[in-house]
Amino acid sequence: MTDVAFPTPVLLRMAGRGERQVSTSFETLECLEREWPEWARGRRWRSAVTTCRDSLDGWRTGVDAQRSFLRAAEAAGLLPVGKRTRTVQRWGFSGPTSAQNHLKKQPARRIRHSGARAGR
Known about the structure:
This protein has 120 residues and is of the alpha+beta class. 51% of the residues lie in helices and 14% in strands. The chain has one domain. Strands 1-2 form a two-stranded antiparallel sheet. β1 (5-14) and β2 (18-24) form a beta hairpin. It is globular, with a radius of gyration of 18 Å. It comes from Aquamicrobium zhengzhouense.
């Protein structure tokens, strides 16, 4: 396992601990496993842990690990307010608001069921 450096360090705003900077996959994995809030350990957190482990094993790049980590940090609300939008947009993550807007633009689809309905 070799440590993989990120192109640019990521600055986090950790509750009760102040700011934390991570700049490698190993530091990120430590942060995710030891310092991450329990309530924020969802799908994006699991994806970030997996991607960081894969980058340490040589299966993924540092950019992939950083991108996944930024998505998890955005979902947990740990990115500093002034840097949140710029950093996340730089890596192509549009956030939940644009995803919600995308869903609003999609026409409603009807699902056709074949056969008898349940309960009849």
